[in-house]
Amino acid sequence: MTKPLDNLAAGAAQPRASSSDACVPEQALAESVGATMYARDPASQSLGMTLDTIAPGYARMSMPVRANMLNGHATCHGGFIFALADSAFAFACNSHNQVTVGAGCTIDYLSPGREGDVLTATASEQTLAGKTGIYDVKVTNQDGRTIALFRGKSHRISGEVI
How do residues 92-149 score in pLDDT, each as one tens digit? Predict the structure, then answer.
């Protein structure tokens, strides 16, 4: 299992911030928040999830589909797909270092995940106003096939992550 943010150090593709110096501290803060949250997240860790990329309002996480994640149809149980999407959503909406929780979400399953697949959830902030945000998460497999689409609504509560 790769450690969170290993792919950032390896130069993996990530969203581009503007070239202004003001964005550098925001990116560094998002990375620190991501590392801290991942270290405190035994649920995501136990499912084999990795935090591949994080930026303000954005997160990408991956998870291999193991044999013990299969349902009676020999496809990835929807609950595991949901957990991956929900974790990416959580990292994206907390990336601003404000403690943020989910207020609601929907998920549409489009294609099955299979044993041996590596699923990737990419979460992107669509809007953030006051204490409420909307995030879209796309879950794909290693071939780029869309597995699920998730939309989450976030709510900021008091406190900072770090």
Answer: 999 999 999 999 999 999 999 999 999 999 999 999 999 999 999 999 999 999 999 9
The pLDDT mean for the chain works out to 90
122: its two tokens = 């990419």
> Looking at the DSSP assignment, which residues form a beta bridge with residue 53?
60
**Domain-embedded: residue 85:** yes
Alpha-helical regions (H) of the chain: 6-9, 23-39, 42-46, 78-94
- Which residues touch 33 (CB under 8 Å, ≥6 apart)? 54, 94, 95, 96, 97, 161, 162
- Report the CATH number that the domain containing residue 131 is assigned in CATH: 3.10.129.10
Cα 20 from Cα 59, distance rounded (Å): 21
Say if residue 6's pLDDT is above 50.
no
Q: Which residue type occupies 35?
A: A
Domain range for 100 is 21-156
Q: Mind giving me the DSSP string for 33-78?
A: HHHHHHHT-HHHHHTT-EEEEEETTEEEEEEE--GGGB-TTSSB-H
Question: For the chain, how many structural domains are there in total?
Answer: 1
